[in-house]
């Protein structure tokens, strides 16, 4: 975890930002809960446990800064809530998501499934692709099993 904090610190420095204690507390929560897709309010409540003096506005500004610098990705799964997701280390693209429409679990696919699609877009539309988002909505394995048993 410490080397990832260091890396993020360097990324901030490269853009002339400092890793203030408030920003660090926010980054630590994101690292600790990397598998979760937390909203700004969720993150705020967790940061507050470590840094009680911190305000929601500060956490919000930090998250906006981190998403501008592409350290986190802001994502919306269609429930109207913005969630924040750490970009995987060294990842050139934003990982893909599988969202279950029944239980709401979110699974991640780190492998880039869209390389061929990107090439096609670049060739056919002369559009230089920098990133993409891909979310599949469907029914997870567990819910499929539960549905089968209920029938
Ligand atoms: Zn994710
Ligand atoms: Zn499910």
Draw up the topology in text.
Elements: H1 2-14, H2 21-32, E1 38-39, H3 40-50, H4 56-68, E2 72-76, E3 82-86, E4 96-100, E5 106-109, H5 115-125, E6 135-138, H6 141-150
Parallel strand pairs: 4-6
Antiparallel strand pairs: 1-3, 2-3, 4-5
Helix pairs in contact: 2-3, 3-4
Q: How would you describe the overall organization of this protein?
A:
The protein is of the alpha+beta class and 151 residues long. It has two domains: 1-89, Arc Repressor Mutant, subunit A; 91-151, Dna Ligase, domain 1 (2-Layer Sandwich), CATH 3.30.1490.190. Helix content is 46%, strand content 17%. The chain contains six helices and six strands, in the order ααβααββββαβα. It has helices at residues 2-14, 21-32, 40-50, 56-68, 115-125, 141-150; strands at residues 38-39, 72-76, 82-86, 96-100, 106-109, 135-138. Strands 1-3-2 form a three-stranded antiparallel β-sheet. The chain has a three-stranded mixed β-sheet with strand order 5-4-6, with no helix packed on it. A hairpin with a 5-residue loop joins strand 4 and strand 5. Helix 2 packs across helix 3. The radius of gyration is 18 Å and the shape is globular. The mean pLDDT is 92. Fe cation binds at residues 115, 132. This is Ferric uptake regulation protein.
């Amino acid at each position: 975890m410490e080397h990832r904090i260091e890396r993020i610190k360097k990324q901030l420095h490269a853009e002339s930002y400092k890793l203030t204690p408030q920003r660090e507390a926010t980054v630590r929560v994101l690292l600790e809960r990397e598998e979760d897709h937390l909203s700004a309010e969720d993150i705020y409540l967790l940061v507050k446990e470590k840094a009680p003096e911190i305000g929601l506005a500060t956490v919000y500004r930090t998250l906006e800064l981190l998403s501008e610098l592409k350290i986190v990705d802001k994502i919306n799964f269609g429930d109207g809530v913005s969630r924040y997701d750490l970009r995987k280390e060294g990842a050139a693209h934003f990982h893909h998501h599988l969202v279950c429409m029944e239980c709401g679990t979110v699974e991640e696919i780190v492998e880039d499934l869209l390389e061929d699609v990107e090439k096609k877009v670049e060739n056919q539309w002369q559009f230089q692709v920098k990133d993409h988002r891909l979310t599949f909505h469907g029914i997870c394995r567990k819910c499929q099993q539960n549905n089968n048993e209920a029938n």
